Amino acid sequence: MDVELREVHDSDLPVFYRQLNDPEALRMAAFTPKDPDDWDAFDARWRRIRSSDDVLRTILADGDVVGSAAVYGDPGEREVTYWVDRAYWGRGVATAALLRLLAEVPERPLYARAAADNEGSLRVLSKCGFRVTAHARGFANARDEEIDEVVLHLEG
To answer: 57-96, pLDDT tens digit by residue?
Structure first.
């Protein structure tokens, strides 16, 4: 499967919105918007992100839009995030996309966070060189409760 990154296009947003509203994906990601069904909030968030200095990319697999990847935050504290359509889980798409994003954004350190039970995401981050540096608890909107999370770090 050919995985590439490109700039986000307006036409990607409805795809991202649909992906964000997959109940199983929401539960696994855990740390999601309070109301993923709220198109206006979704649209406002994406307008804000797209006008920032953050690095935001659309993930393509064999030319199809299958998710997004980003580096965001203040220098020295920047984090990576990604979302891949559940139909592509377990096929190496997230790992390939994150490796491409990390090559595009050479600054280090970078951080990541994941629900402690999100084994797939933790595996992707490990394959990309992130190492666990802390454990925390945080409120997960998608689960409506506080859960364990893992903080990871990537050095240069």
So the answer is: 999 999 999 999 999 999 889 999 999 999 999 999 999 9
Tokens 């990390």 belong to: 102
What would the DSSP string read from start to end of 88-154?
GTTTTHHHHHHHHHHHH---S-EEEEEETT-HHHHHHHHHTT-EEEEEEEEEETTTTEEEEEEEEEE
User: Are the C-beta atoms of residues 58 and 68 closer than 8 Å to each other?
Assistant: yes
CB atoms within 10 A of CB 28: 20
Sheet containing 79-84, strands listed edge to edge, beginning at the edge strand earlier in sequence: 3-6, 55-61, 64-72, 79-84, 110-115, 145-154, 131-140
Closest to 118 (Cα-Cα) out of 77, 144, 147, 154: 147
Provide the token pair at 155. Answer: 């050095």
3-state secondary structure of 34: coil
pTM of the model: 0.95
Single out the residue of 118, 122, 102 nearest to residue 110, CA to CA. 102
Chain segment 8-28, per-residue pLDDT in tens = 999 999 999 999 999 999 999
